[in-house]
Each structure stands twice: as C-alpha cells, then as structure tokens.
Amino acid sequence: MLAAPATVSTMFRLLRITFLLYVLAFVGVGTVISAYESTDWDHPLLVHVYAVKGDRSLAVGNYVDTLRHDRFESVAAFIGKEAHRHGVALDSPIRFFIDPEPLDTIPTLAPNARYWQILGWSLRMRWLAFRLAWQSTQRSPDITLFAVYHDSGTTLALDGSTALRRGLIAVAHLFADRQRAGSNDLVVAHELLHTLGASDKYALDTNLPIYPQGYAEPAAKPRYPQQLTEVMAGRRPISPAEAAMPSELEAVVIGPLTAEEIGW
C-alpha cells in the first residue's frame, strides 16, 4: 500500500532534520577539539586566508588579484615576537596561506541582528569554511580568515570585523590600500586572537581602552600618553577621553591578560 503524500512529506522532513542534527553534532564535536588544540601551542597554527571583494571598485579588484603569499607575514612575525616574550617556545606560532581564488561575497551579518539571525549566520559561515577547506588542496586549516577588502576612499566605517571562537573563523574588514597595511595588520591580529579566546579590552560605547587591562603600560607615570597599544584594545590611550589607532604593529603588544586567555 502506497504511503499518503502527507506521510511521505513528513518522513522526508524528519530525514532532513535528522541529517542536520547529525551535521551540527559532528561540527560541534570538531569545534571543541579544534578549540582545545588551537591553544595548546605545541605546533604552528595554519591560517587559511580567503580574500573577499567587499565592493566592485576597480581598486579593490586590482588589490585582491595581486595579493602575495607574504602579505600577512608581518602579523605572523608580530605574534611570534609576542609569543617568545611570553615564554612560548615555537619559532613560528602562526603561518598563513592565501588561497589563490578570491571570493566575491560571504554571508553578511546585520549590525543589530537578533540572536537567531546571529546563529544562522554562524552556521552559514561554518559551512562555508568547511566547504572551502574540503575543496582545498592544502591541509585543513586551524583558523579560517576572510579578509574583506574595501576601497580606501570609502567613508564606510570598517567596524564589522568579527570572529567565531566556536569554529575558529575570523572576518576582517580591511582597506585595499598598501599604505593602510599597518592598521590592516592590527585588525587581522585582533580578530585572529579572538578566535583563540582573547576578549575585547575597550569600552563598547566609547571605543576607549579599559584601564588597566586595555593599557599596554598601566603602571606608566605619567599614565598619558601611552607609548604602546594593547592589541585587544585596538587603540593607544592619549588621554582619559582620547585614543588613537596605531599605524604599525611595532607599537602594539599582547598584554598579560590576553596572553593568559589564549593559553600562553
């Protein structure tokens, strides 16, 4: 006897739900294992970079198409230097590989997204990272970085950068301008450290570094202006009500609380 159409439809719906639950469970277990292994620091972490064309301008297209594999070596050197300062023995804690095929778009997240929208975006990003890793001829990355480039002439505030600790995925909004390399490097380093468990150390309402954890030299006298920037604060305190973004990573450090958060 043939099953009624409603019964068949219900059966396929249950199969889809079961499959999705299986995938989520598989991804969840893998996420826990990856998160643990990413901060034991017994081997270098591979960061697989996918350049994304944030807009259709000619400048962005030319910049993305000519990205070289050594573009993020300054970030790798910064993290290596700070790792040694905090007692990590690895010579190169982080290594980068840039995929030769840029992406035209990735899932976007609205600024005031609700919880269920954030969850949906998170799952889409994890699925995208999984699919790209599956298609790649490189070994599976420890961290996936989507570097979204925008025209440097835009007035857009590039404050949409974010990271997923569960999934080890970072999204960095950057300028397609080599003269902005220093500030781009800071954004990349900041978001990568988020994937490893580092927390923001600035006030969300003012963007000012929080004292003392957001200050690279909290015991300095006089306290202002600070000479260095804590990477997770993102800005160098100049006065109690003013801070400036550094132009290069040479003036940035990973503070003791951030180091503890990422397992150093």
List key phrases describing it:
37% helix; Collagenase (Catalytic Domain); 264 residues; 2 domains; two-stranded parallel sheet; 6 helices; five-stranded mixed sheet; alpha/beta; globular; 9 strands
Order of SSEs: HEHHEHEEEHEEEEH
CATH topology of the largest domain: Collagenase (Catalytic Domain)
How many domain regions? 2
Gyration radius from CA atoms, angstroms: 21 Å
Enumerate the strands of the largest sheet in spatial order, edge to edge or round the barrel: 2-1-3-5-4
| Class of secondary structure makeup | alpha/beta
Level of helix content? 25-40%
Basic shape: globular
Number of helices: 6
Please, what is the average pLDDT? 89
Strand content is: 15-25%
Q: Provide the low-confidence segments as ranges.
A: none
- CATH class category label of the largest domain: Alpha Beta
Main sheet properties? 5 strands, mixed
Count of strand segments: 9
In the CATH hierarchy, the architecture of the largest domain is 3-Layer(aba) Sandwich
Termini, distance in Å? 65 Å
Question: Could you give the topology of this structure?
Answer:
Blueprint: H1 5-38, E1 45-53, H2 58-65, H3 73-85, E2 94-98, H4 115-135, E3 143-150, E4 162-164, E5 169-175, H5 181-195, E6 229-230, E7 236-239, E8 242-244, E9 252-253, H6 256-261
Parallel strand pairs: 1-2, 1-3, 3-5, 6-9
Antiparallel strand pairs: 4-5, 7-8
